[in-house]
Each structure stands twice: as structure tokens, then as C-alpha cells.
Amino acid sequence: MKEKRKRNYARNKKAFDSVMHYYRDLGKIGSISAINIAQSSKGSPNPARPTPLDFRCDVEKVIKKIIPAAFLARFFKAYIFLEAADSIEQEKWADKVLGGIRHSFEQRMGEQFIERKLHPVQGRGYFHCIRKARKK
């Protein structure tokens, strides 16, 4: 008999909240720049480091994997488009829009964020990159 893997609910919720908060903040910045390859412009000072655009793409991959198409619009309404003053207001709104299924979404997405190393976002997380000198 295959043993069921135990979930760390608190860790998954923390990962979900952290990543989604950063994702929402990136939306407030406005446009996200990319390199124009048609002209000879200088790229990133560290090309190995992921950009905010890479982060948004990776988060959206997880969203599309976990959230069924029937719930996608409501998910974006609950978690992306609301500018809540605090986390309690955010939770109340998400519960109103999605109901009890939101817990399943949060847990599964949090687990994927950890598995794909999107969490932690700051510190030694997603955007941390060690640049090594080239060998000559």
C-alpha cells in the first residue's frame, strides 16, 4: 500500500501568500522591461539572474496548472485584482469569491511554488544568483 505524503499546511500557505503578494506588487509597477534584441543594447548586468518577467511567467504557469478554467476568472478576481489593505481582508474577499475550494488552491499552489523554487522570493530565494567569473 502506498503511503500518503503528509502536507505541511502552514509552509504551503506561507509560500502561497508570499509569492502572490510579490506577484501583485509586480503588477503595480507598470510595465516590465525586456531586452530589445533588434538593436545592440546592453542586457542585464547579470544575465543568469531571473527577471521580474521570468517570475511572472513562472507564477502564471503554476496558476494555469492548478486552477481549472471554470475558476480562473474568479481566482484572478480574488487574488490578483484586489488591492487589500491587509491579509485578513484579502482572506475574507477570497472566501467570498471562491468559497471553501480556495484552501485547496492555496495548498496545491503553495506546494508547487516550493517545489519549483519560487518561494522564498527574496533573500536566497528565486532572485538570488551567484555570478561566477569566466574561466579563461
Task: Based on the model shown, name its key terms.
136 residues, mainly alpha
Give a structural overview.
With 136 residues, this protein is mainly α. 54% of the residues lie in helices and 0% in strands. It has five helices and no strands. Helix 1 (9-29) crosses helix 2, helix 2 packs across helix 5 (101-115) and helix 3 (69-79) packs antiparallel against helix 4. The radius of gyration is 18 Å and the shape is globular. The model has no long low-confidence stretch (mean pLDDT 83).
* Radius of gyration from CA coordinates: 18 Å
Taking the alpha carbons of the first and last residues, their distance comes to 55 Å
What is the H-and-E element order?
A: HHHHH
Strand percentage lies at under 5%
- Uncertain regions spanning at least 5 consecutive residues: none
**Main sheet makeup:** none
| Shape type | globular
Number of strands: 0
> What percent of residues adopt helix (DSSP H or I)?
40-55%
Helical segment count: 5
Class computed from helices, strands and strand pairing: mainly alpha
Mean pLDDT equals 83
Can you give me a brief rundown of this structure?
The protein is 54% helix and 0% strand. The chain is built from 5 helices and no strands. The protein is globular and about 60 Å long.
List the helices and strands and how they pair.
Elements: H1 9-29, H2 52-66, H3 69-79, H4 87-98, H5 101-115
Helix pairs in contact: 1-2, 1-5, 2-5, 3-4
